[in-house]
Prior knowledge:
By secondary structure, the protein is mainly alpha-helical. The protein has helices at residues 13-19, 29-36, 40-48, 66-74; strands at residues 26-27, 55-56, 62-65.
Amino acid sequence: MNVMALAPVRLDSARVAANGPGPDDLMTRRQVAALLGVTSAAVASWARRGRLPELRNEDGRPRYRRADVEALSRGDGRRAR
């Protein structure tokens, strides 16, 4: 499995509030999986169950907000059953 290193991203809250999440604020399924130490299938399952909100880019590929991923890793929010 190819694991990608993630660089820290600094969020500009004024820009995010005005323009929505930028490309640096969004993560791929593979990046989320690597960060949390799970499979990409687990990430997809969490999205289907509503545990992790999912966005789609212009190509229809899933993307995840960094803030949502960080909240999930801290255990914030509801748990899907």
